[in-house]
Amino acid sequence: TTLLTAPPECLGVEGRLAHKLFRDLFANYTSALRPVADTDQALNVTLEVTLSQIIDMDERNQVLTLYLWIRQEWTDAYLQWDPDAYGGLDVIRIPSSLVWRPDIVLYNKADAQPRASASTNVVLRHDGAVRWDAPAITRSSCRVDVSAFPFDAQRCGLTFGSWTHGGHQLDVRPRGATASLADFVENVEWRVLGMPARRRVLTYGCCSEPYPDVTFTLLLRRRAAAYVCNLLLPCVLISLLAPLAFHLPADSGEKVSLGVTVLLALTVFQLLLAESMPPAESVPLIGKYYMATMTMVTFSTALTILIMNLHYCGPSARPVPAWARALLLGYLARGLCVRERGEPCGWSRSHESPPDPQPSEAGTGPPAGPCHEPQCLCHQEALLHHVATIASTFRSHRAAQRRHEDWKRLARVMDRFFLGIFFSMALVMSLLVLVQAL
């Protein structure tokens, strides 16, 4: 601009030629009209995009912010000259505001306010070829699918086209099959898989003529390492810790406390996840894992409470049913290796409780046989009655203790059974989620 506006006497030979060329070209030039010799002829515009940086991906508002270099090339029929007439000068650079520029805009932009065009120069060749390179920060709408978060891949399209010129007046075509990624700055959260370009010709309801556009589809895959370390692995460890409540001794008093603590920890992680995820109909994969784990912990805590009730059945409890004695205390106890202290694994006591000995009818009276001594023990009927009562009470107490031990043994069998089930469930769910990271 300084070269073109300086006085001719202050310029060198090349400067005077450029100044003369500028005056000759723009003497009768207007940037308001389409620069074609035939108004029925379409002007071809070549569009090239270079991705420089991913500034932000706002999943909650579904807005993608990019830093792009946009290059547009076209031929201006009114800006041509003979280089020999100007000392071999075949290229000049002039402000872009002086020449006609295509009104190519981003169709799916998400800006609240329109951005001003970058005030960069255009490169003008002697044959009328115009090249306009301009940097741009674009904010485009992008439909974000978080159903596989944090192992998701996104496809965000950027559609460029003329706002007022139809296909009969301005034809937009991409340069090459993909956008250039040569100067791309790697992003810490997203990995770029490619950015293919595709040309479309659409007819809108407002107008009868077709409108061509070029869509650059940015293929992204999330880098899940940070989410695996901060959100997924703690949940996996907590979910593997929850079934161990079945392995705690009932007398420790911590079985239910462990389940409640694990449930509270999962709730905290669930709240942290909900803050970073957009509200959507599809639940993310990690969200499904959290809900499944919380459901498992809830059921395990409820079953722990029921098993604690079985363990603390008092002496007044009814005997263990016959089917439970045969199935749980028999086959299942041997299969799960639940044994009393000192018993070998795979051995269990008889399925049936030994019958309670009943006091004999003769126990209330003197024993049969001759006894003629007045001080003989057999004549002390009151003493014999008390001894029989004590023996009966002791036998009843022993029977109640055996019933109590049976219920405690049944509680241990159920603890071992549910420990295997819930630990297997937690391990399978964790592996299914972690395998997505491979």
TrEMBL record:
Annotated organism of origin: Galemys pyrenaicus (Iberian desman)
Name assigned to this protein: Neuronal acetylcholine receptor subunit alpha-10
Sequence intervals crossing the membrane: 224-246, 258-277, 289-308, 417-437
Catalysed reaction equations from the record: K(+)(in) = K(+)(out); Na(+)(in) = Na(+)(out); Ca(2+)(in) = Ca(2+)(out); Mg(2+)(in) = Mg(2+)(out)
Any one of the GO CC terms: postsynaptic membrane
A GO term for molecular function: transmembrane signaling receptor activity
Membrane-topology descriptor: Multi-pass membrane protein
InterPro entries: Neur_chan_lig-bd, Neur_chan_lig-bd_sf, Neur_channel, Neuro-gated_channel_TM_sf, Neuro_actylchol_rec, Neurotrans-gated_channel_TM, Neurotransmitter_ion_chnl_CS, Nicotinic_acetylcholine_rcpt
Subunit field text: Forms homo- or heterooligomeric channels in conjunction with CHRNA10. The native outer hair cell receptor may be composed of CHRNA9:CHRNA10 heterooligomers. Found in the stoichiometric form (CHRNA9)2:(CHRNA10)3.
Family: Belongs to the ligand-gated ion channel (TC 1.A.9) family. Acetylcholine receptor (TC 1.A.9.1) subfamily. Alpha-10/CHRNA10 sub-subfamily.
Disordered: annotated span: 347-368
Gene3D superfamilies assigned: Neurotransmitter-gated ion-channel ligand-binding domain (2.70.170.10), Neurotransmitter-gated ion-channel transmembrane domain (1.20.58.390)
Domain of life, source organism: Eukaryota
One Pfam family per UniProt: Neur_chan_LBD
Limits of the Neurotransmitter-gated ion-channel ligand-binding domain: 19-223
Residue span(s) of domain Neurotransmitter-gated ion-channel transmembrane: 231-432
Keywords of the record: Calcium, Calcium channel, Calcium transport, Cell membrane, Disulfide bond, Glycoprotein, Ion channel, Ion transport, Ligand-gated ion channel, Membrane, Receptor, Signal, Synapse, Transmembrane, Transmembrane helix, Transport
Major location category of this protein: membrane
Record's subcellular location: Synaptic cell membrane
